[in-house]
Design brief:
Elements: E1 3-7, E2 10-12, E3 18-25, E4 33-39, E5 46-51, E6 57-59, E7 67-72, E8 77-82, E9 91-99, E10 102-105, E11 109-113
Parallel strand pairs: 2-11
Antiparallel strand pairs: 1-3, 3-8, 4-5, 4-9, 5-6, 7-8, 9-10, 9-11
Length: 115
């Protein structure tokens, strides 16, 4: 049974930081491409950042220089460090694991950036 469990969301003021975690089980984690997506109310779910098993990363233009994705293959966990948060970063953040035709989602964690 595959599980992706996100944690670390919450309420933060503009300019603040949060670190999201996603713990995976039931998959050969090191071979999976891990991604973070986000979905704001009434909006589509968009890719925020991705990281290959070897550690290559990609980012949405809107978060480059502010967010950092990383992974710990020994702990089957992927992280998203979010700095300089803006109100427009408010969304539910989802962890995604992908390998060839296989794909799995977490349940999401709410991030709210507001003063």
């Amino acid at each position: 049974q595959v599980q992706l469990v996100e944690s670390g969301g919450g309420l933060v003021q503009p300019g603040g930081s949060l670190r999201l975690s996603c713990a995976a089980s039931g998959i050969a984690f090191s071979i999976y491409h891990m991604n973070w997506y986000r979905q704001a109310p009434g909006q589509q779910r968009d890719l925020v950042a991705g990281i290959t098993g070897a550690g290559s990363t990609n980012y949405a233009d809107s978060v480059k220089g502010r967010f950092t994705i990383s992974r710990d293959n020994a702990k089957n966990t992927v992280f998203l460090q979010m700095n300089s948060l803006k109100p427009e970063d408010t969304a539910v953040y989802y962890c995604n694991a992908r390998h060839n035709s296989l794909g799995y989602w977490g349940q999401g964690t709410q991030v709210t950036v507001s003063s």
